[in-house]
């Protein structure tokens, strides 16, 4: 486990001041590389434990597609000058204000500020799909934070090699589970709207909902 240090701690603090939601800076958040879904689960848990009245304004958003090949820019693991990374899936936390303060994105894998307004995050991270092949078009499974906490489960088997060794070391806390499941992560990654929880959207629908 390690923490991601912001490029600009002042930006982190200033951006948080625009919101009623108070989440620790990126360097203080619990973070495990390649376990974005659990990093976001922990953010949801933090809000529930510390600002429960705002939990209904928070969402976990899984980003993937039927090919599990989604390009995202300005990612820490990106290799080119624009930090392009192609994930099988990625998960972000968003806070959608009830007033005119807009929507904030909390992405622990971005090199952009933490948090960052969606109106700035989206064009940099998603770019324009008109320039992408259809197999790389992104879909979004939007899940209310409270529902995510109640329903998500993972035994982390996706992160194991055939011999049982870890592809990436897991978080230090026990696997997340529910009374109904010990592993349903594939339902969250799937962009089939007939299974799983939450609402599946394309990029335009996602932006229309939160901008």
UniProtKB/TrEMBL annotation:
Q: Which domain of life is it from?
A: Eukaryota
What is this enzyme's class at the first EC digit? hydrolase
In the UniProt record, does the keyword Glycosyltransferase occur?
no
The segment(s) forming the Protein N-terminal glutamine amidohydrolase alpha beta roll domain are 31-210
Enumerate the Pfam families for this protein: Nt_Gln_amidase (PF09764)
Q: Which family does it belong to?
A: Belongs to the NTAQ1 family.
* Binding partners and assembly: Monomer.
Q: What is this protein called?
A: Protein N-terminal glutamine amidohydrolase
| Gene name linked to the record | tun
């Amino acid at each position: 486990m390690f923490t991601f240090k912001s490029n600009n701690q002042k930006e982190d603090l200033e951006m948080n001041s625009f919101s009623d939601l108070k989440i620790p800076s990126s360097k203080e958040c619990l973070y495990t590389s390649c376990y974005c879904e659990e990093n976001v689960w922990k953010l949801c848990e933090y809000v529930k434990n510390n600002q429960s009245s705002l939990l209904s304004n928070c969402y976990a958003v899984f980003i993937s597609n039927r090919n599990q090949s989604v390009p995202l820019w300005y990612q820490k693991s990106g290799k080119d000058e624009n930090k392009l990374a192609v994930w099988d899936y990625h998960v972000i936390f968003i806070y959608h204000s009830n007033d005119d303060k807009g929507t904030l994105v909390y992405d622990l894998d971005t090199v952009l500020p933490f948090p960052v307004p969606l109106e700035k995050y989206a064009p940099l991270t998603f770019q324009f799909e008109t320039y992408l092949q259809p197999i790389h078009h992104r879909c979004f499974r939007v899940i209310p934070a409270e529902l995510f906490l109640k329903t998500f489960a993972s035994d982390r088997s996706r992160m194991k090699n055939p011999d049982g060794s870890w592809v990436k070391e897991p978080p230090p806390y026990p696997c997340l589970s529910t009374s109904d499941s010990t592993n349903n992560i594939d339902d969250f990654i799937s962009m089939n709207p007939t299974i799983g929880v939450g609402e599946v959207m394309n990029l335009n629908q996602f932006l229309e909902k939160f901008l």
